[in-house]
Specification:
- Helix 1 (about 5-40) packs antiparallel against helix 2 (about 45-85).
- The chain has helices at about 5-40, 45-85, 90-95, 100, 120-130, 150-160, 170-180, 180-190, 200-210, 235-240, and strands at about 105, 135-140, 145-150, 190-195, 215-220, 225-230.
- The model has no long low-confidence stretch (mean pLDDT about 85).
- The longest helix has about 45 residues, at about 45-85.
- By secondary structure, it is of the alpha+beta class.
- A four-stranded mixed β-sheet has the order 1-6-5-4.
- The chain has two domains: about 5-85; about 95-240, CBS-domain (Roll).
- It is built from ten helices and six strands; from the N terminus they run ααααβαββαααβαββα.
Length: about 240
């Protein structure tokens, strides 16, 4: 449960505890006062009648108020759930701006491709960053260039290890040259949308590209522009839940 949900649950619990305490002490206090009035009254019969006439309507009003509050709260909660159920995941995505959910450029762990970039160093940097299992590569102008998932890299390393390569010395260029299809995956498994796009637009772009699980956000939705942020399929899936 998220922090907001926990806080709401705590507040609801406190409200009900307060309500129970008020009911207990109020009824107990009224009962005590009524009893003392009757006990110390000179005319106990008259006093009993007066207390009964005063207290019964009060208790009846309290019971009615509590029941009305409880059932109205349940009705409101039920109605809210019903309204939420009518909103489709796609409609929810249409209402969310991509820029509101993306990982901003300054918060990304991204890489720059060079012929000498060792895969071992890439893996170490990603592990140290503790920011997921994907390798976004940006060009010299911070434009989107490649995207690789750690699973792709691991599979490529296993393939080259079986063929006798020293995987600690392999560069990403070596993998691109020696592992069939890896560079094609890196270059073609991501999409791009503009800063005005919604998550629905990002999902549509992702669906358009076979195997894509990542979307870069640029100012105008072109690949030759600087990246403003990055959206993964996980973000879209979480945001589509109602």
């Amino acid at each position: 449960m998220n922090a907001n949900g926990t806080l709401e649950k705590q507040e609801a619990t406190h409200r009900w505890e307060l309500a129970r305490a008020i009911r207990f002490y109020s009824i107990g206090g009224i009962s005590l006062i009524a009893g003392l009035v009757v006990i110390f009254a000179a005319d106990k019969a008259s006093a009993s009648q007066t207390v009964l006439t005063a207290v019964l309507p009060l208790l009846a009003a309290w019971v009615s108020t509590v029941l009305a509050y409880y059932y109205s709260s349940e009705s409101i909660e039920s109605a809210t759930k019903n309204v939420k159920s009518l909103i489709s995941p796609q409609e929810k995505l249409k209402a969310i701006k991509a820029v509101d959910k993306m990982i901003k450029l300054q918060d990304m762990t991204y890489f720059t491709f060079t012929d000498t970039l060792k895969v071992h160093d890439m893996l170490d940097e990603l592990k140290a960053s503790k920011k997921g299992l994907r390798f976004p590569f940006l060009g010299d102008k911070k434009q989107p260039q490649f995207i690789l998932h750690k699973s792709n890299v691991d599979a490529a390393l296993v393939e080259r290890s079986v063929k006798g390569d020293d995987i600690t010395q392999l560069t990403l260029k070596d993998l691109f040259d020696k592992v069939d299809g890896l560079k094609t995956v890196a270059e073609g498994s991501f999409g791009v949308v503009g800063e005005n796009a919604t998550l629905a637009d990002a999902k549509a772009e992702m669906s358009r590209i076979k195997g894509a699980q990542d979307i870069f956000v640029t100012s105008n939705g072109r690949k030759d522009c600087m990246v403003a942020g990055w959206i993964t399929n996980d973000f879209i899936e979480q945001s589509s839940k109602v």
